[in-house]
């Protein structure tokens, strides 16, 4: 009785081995579809990186926004040293926002007549969460950051940092509209020298506008 | 004979048409390569009492008026803190007879007011395009001993505020000639420096309600209207409320001209060591005129600030670019000119941009590495 049981186990072992071996051979040979599996350790937005990467997510709560305004036709905005300054600014502010548990986003604005020229200019400055290009001094970006909502000196290159509250419908508040509110200018820097100084000073921001607030993910 | 007459008449008509249709857009009067300012725009000053040099004064050559870096100074504005502890950008500042300090911040779009102990006692203005708001404020003036504070904003909007203790109230706003460069105020009027081709003048006197009272001051002399437009308005204004004199400086011209309230030239001072940065008249490929303001090089100077003190005298500061091998890239020279007589003296060098001199303090503003107001206590009487 025991000999029969051992013999049965041996048969199953051999069958399994043959099936596995055959599957492997067929998979390697491409005759059977083989899933690709990749193991990656999870990364946080503040993990060391030499390039800014948007989070591509939508949340509600306090947000820090970095706006870069340049132009393909402005000699100062095409200074060779400027792209790395702006990239370092993005990373530095992203870290600061993360420390306060704020969202962080970047906007690139090109003061150019032709959108292609403007986008080409902004491409030199890495990745932005969103871009505005075209229509020169009458663009949505120019209106917003020079003439109307946040008026200031119309000059390039320029960076602004604003703080704002991002609101959206949630399960608890389904009637809440999509909107941004309480937009406040924290910093405006003009020209490479000012931008460089500010970066070297550690991108100081008004602390009373950076008080921690709670927020919920969508 | 009849045919020849007709040909002659036809030729005459063609010549008439061509000359009549010539468009006076300035193309025909361009002189590419002309370096400005031209000699006819620098009136001679022959009386040596009114020619000021950097050497001089009892302390001799290279005297230091105030060393803000080495000497003990108080500062307002920190690198990082609450918003009211930081400045966005120190654009202008003035002080009144009581030692109250008014600082115009052109990035945070407001005026901050500090008492004689340099504590913040109030502020007014905010970002916006409304009457009480600032879009891009450029210049600040006070009058009536600080009872009125006047701000020159973008697009030539002048905004008048009144002060009662620590309360600041918006009074009025009005629009002046386009493209104003500077402003000062005295005795119930606001003076704007801006070129008006229509009025043929560069200084315009307004009431606080915006009524244009008078215009005076000779525009830049050039046969080309574009050059005239480009070089006439740029410059600085300073008012002496006590002596009723308006001081005017044209960019790149080494002169300070004193006008009466009625616009008559009272005196003229020349800065003998001031070498202007070059301005080149050019012509674009399509024939249109253009102006190139060259970056100043070693030995050339640029005017920095012009202001008055409680006694009504003028102070003028300019910056001279040093040789690239020098440790210090620039030298800032400060002069005092008596508004009543035009006689002046060289006070010496400073290492910061001086905006105001009070009874007991000298006020400077810096924006690098971060915006600050630097205050130095005066321990000796100024010359």
The overall strand count of chain A is: 5
What is the β-strand count of chain B?
Answer: 29
Count helical runs of chain B.
Answer: 2
Average per-residue pLDDT of chain A, rounded, comes to 87
DSSP summary: helix tally of chain A: 5
Provide the structure class of chain B: mainly beta
Rg estimate of chain B, integer Å = 24 Å
How would the global form of chain B be characterised?
Answer: globular
* Beta-strand content bin of chain B: 35-45%
> Which two chains have the most extensive interface, and how many residues on each?
A-B, 24 and 23 residues
Order of helices and strands of chain A: HEHEHEHEEH
Unreliable residue runs of chain B: none
**Computed structural class of chain A:** alpha/beta
Give, in spatial order, the strands making up the sheet with the most strands of chain A.
Answer: 3-2-1-4-5
Strand residue percentage of chain A? 15-25%
**End-to-end gap of chain A:** 64 Å
Fraction of residues in helix of chain A:
25-40%
Rg over C-alpha atoms of chain A, rounded to the nearest angstrom = 27 Å
* Largest sheet, strands/sense/barrel of chain A: 5 strands, mixed
**How confident overall, as mean pLDDT of chain B?**
90
Q: Helix content range of the residues of chain B, please? A: under 10%
């Amino acid at each position: 009785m025991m000999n029969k049981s051992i013999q049965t186990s041996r048969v199953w072992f051999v069958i399994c081995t043959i099936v596995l071996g055959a599957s492997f051979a067929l998979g390697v040979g491409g005759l059977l579809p083989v899933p690709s599996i990749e193991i990656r350790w999870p990364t946080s937005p503040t993990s060391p990186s030499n390039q800014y990467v948007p989070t591509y997510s939508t949340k509600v709560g306090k947000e820090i926004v970095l706006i870069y305004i340049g132009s393909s036709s402005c000699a100062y905005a095409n200074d060779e040293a400027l792209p790395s300054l702006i990239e370092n600014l993005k990373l530095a502010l992203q870290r600061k926002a993360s420390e306060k548990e704020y969202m962080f986003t970047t906007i690139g604005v090109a003061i150019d007549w032709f959108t292609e020229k403007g986008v080409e200019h902004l491409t030199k400055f890495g990745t932005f969460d969103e871009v505005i290009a075209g229509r020169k001094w009458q663009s949505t970006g120019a209106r917003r950051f020079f003439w109307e909502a946040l008026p200031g000196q119309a000059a390039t290159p320029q960076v602004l940092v604003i703080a704002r509250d991002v609101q959206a419908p949630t399960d608890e508040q389904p009637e809440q509209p999509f909107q941004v509110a309480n937009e406040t200018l924290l910093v405006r820097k003009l020209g490479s020298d000012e931008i460089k100084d500010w970066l070297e000073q550690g991108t100081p921001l008004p602390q009373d506008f950076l008080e921690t607030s709670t927020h919920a993910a969508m | 004979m009849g045919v020849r007459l007709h040909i002659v008449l036809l030729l005459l008509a063609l010549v008439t048409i061509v000359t009549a249709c010539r468009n006076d857009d300035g193309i025909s009067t361009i002189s590419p390569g002309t370096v400005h300012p031209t000699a006819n725009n620098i009136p001679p000053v022959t009386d040596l009492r009114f020619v000021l040099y950097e050497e001089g004064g009892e302390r001799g050559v290279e005297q230091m008026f105030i060393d803000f870096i080495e000497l003990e100074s108080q500062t307002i504005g920190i690198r990082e803190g609450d918003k009211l502890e930081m400045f966005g950008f120190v654009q202008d500042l003035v002080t009144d007879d009581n030692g109250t300090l008014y600082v115009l911040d052109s990035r945070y779009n407001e005026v901050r007011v500090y008492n004689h102990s340099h504590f913040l006692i109030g502020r007014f203005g905010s970002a916006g395009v409304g009457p009480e708001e600032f879009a891009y404020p450029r210049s600040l003036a006070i009058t009536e001993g600080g009872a009125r504070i006047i701000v020159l904003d973008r697009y030539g909007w002048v905004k008048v505020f009144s002060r009662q203790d620590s309360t600041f109230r918006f009074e009025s706003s009005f629009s002046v000639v386009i493209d104003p460069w500077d402003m000062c105020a005295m005795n119930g009027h606001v003076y704007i420096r801006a070129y008006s081709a229509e009025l043929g003048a560069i200084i315009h006197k307004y009431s606080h309600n915006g009524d244009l009272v008078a215009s005076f001051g000779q525009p830049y002399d050039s046969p080309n209207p574009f050059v005239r437009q480009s070089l006439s308005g740029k410059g600085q204004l300073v008012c002496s409320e006590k002596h009723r004199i308006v001081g005017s400086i044209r960019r790149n011209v080494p002169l300070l001209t004193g006008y009466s309230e009625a616009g008559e030239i009272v005196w003229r001072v020349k800065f003998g060591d001031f070498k202007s940065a070059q301005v080149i008249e050019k012509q674009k490929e399509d024939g249109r005129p253009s102006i190139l303001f060259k970056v100043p090089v070693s030995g050339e100077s640029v005017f920095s600030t012009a202001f008055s003190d409680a006694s009504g005298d003028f102070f003028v500061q300019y910056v001279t670019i040093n040789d690239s091998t020098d440790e210090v890239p620039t030298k800032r020279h400060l002069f005092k000119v008596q508004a009543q007589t035009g006689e002046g003296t060289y006070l010496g060098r400073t290492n910061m941009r001086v905006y105001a001199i009070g009874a007991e303090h000298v006020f400077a503003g810096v924006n690098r590495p971060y915006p600050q107001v630097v205050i130095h206590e005066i321990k000796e009487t100024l010359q």
